[in-house]
Amino acid sequence: MKISPYAVGALLYAPANQENLARRVIQGQMDAPYSLALCLEDSISDCAVPEAEARAVQTLDEIARADEDVYRPLLFIRVRHPDQIPSLWTRLGAGREILTGFIAPKFTQTNGPAYLAAVRQISEQSGRPVYLMPTLESSDLAEPDLRPECLRRLKTLLDANRDLVLNVRVGGNDFCDVFGVRRARHQTIYEIGCVERILTDILSCFSRDYVVSGPVWEYFDAPEGLNGLARELERDLLAGFVGKTVIHPNQIVVVQNGLRVSKADADDARRILGMADNDRVLVEKSADGGRMNEYKTHTRWARKICALAAIYGVKP
């Protein structure tokens, strides 16, 4: 079954060697809807990779064998390199049936073809899409002169495999690391000018055709960290990002609430799409009379709002 790219939403990163992760999913200890990534990359030391791979396979198989009434999030494995994808796939048992796809860190023009070839091969073998979510976070994107051509080539690569690309993701912390900067709890990543320009260029290149998810928020302490997450999520949505990588279960509900649409937006979105049947007038006042709705300039926005409303609901 085809998955909406808007459904990824709050993507919780968890080290793949974390114990009792399957039990927490099966027992519904995290707020739904959410997605889950079993990470084999930055959160795992090099010497712990074999153990983490085995644990990831076990976690997925345990979730797959659980009662059918259990809520299963969209499930991903974040690998280190393309060769891990077929290796892990051959080791999965029941987990094959519930694995949504793989996350490719530091996705570049060099390693990208191998990542895409790996997921296409197992998709064809399994008879269903096994998705890839490439993460744009390599240091070459930090070079202002190289970035436009680099982004164009990356998009050409993804466009040729668009049926397998569920989301495009960005590595905000990786870009911050290039410049030796870090935002505080009361700041957003958009206040770091050199990083904000990279994110804006990525959105300009990809967001017309792909759902691009916002950068990870690294503070999980309450309430300051959660308030900071809410502020940055608001900026994410305004910029054009949809969804966010999170690092603690208590962040999931913040992202869920941020993705819920206002009643005014939901009403206007439906009215805008309803203008398609009007053969005379393609502009009208909003439901509350406060703004203009125009079919030819607001249709793409309206479709996104309706998709988000269907998945995350409408705020009272």
From TrEMBL:
<dbReference type="GO" id="GO:0003824">
    <property type="term" value="F:catalytic activity"/>
</dbReference>
<keyword id="KW-0460">Magnesium</keyword>
<dbReference type="InterPro" id="IPR040442">
    <property type="entry name" value="Pyrv_kinase-like_dom_sf"/>
</dbReference>
<dbReference type="GO" id="GO:0000287">
    <property type="term" value="F:magnesium ion binding"/>
</dbReference>
<dbReference type="GO" id="GO:0006107">
    <property type="term" value="P:oxaloacetate metabolic process"/>
</dbReference>
<dbReference type="InterPro" id="IPR015813">
    <property type="entry name" value="Pyrv/PenolPyrv_kinase-like_dom"/>
</dbReference>
<dbReference type="InterPro" id="IPR039480">
    <property type="entry name" value="C-C_Bond_Lyase-like"/>
</dbReference>
<protein>
    <recommendedName>
        <fullName>HpcH/HpaI aldolase/citrate lyase domain-containing protein</fullName>
    </recommendedName>
</protein>
<feature type="binding site">
    <location>
        <position position="174"/>
    </location>
    <ligand>
        <name>Mg(2+)</name>
    </ligand>
</feature>
<dbReference type="InterPro" id="IPR011206">
    <property type="entry name" value="Citrate_lyase_beta/mcl1/mcl2"/>
</dbReference>
<dbReference type="Pfam" id="PF15617">
    <property type="entry name" value="C-C_Bond_Lyase"/>
</dbReference>
<keyword id="KW-0479">Metal-binding</keyword>
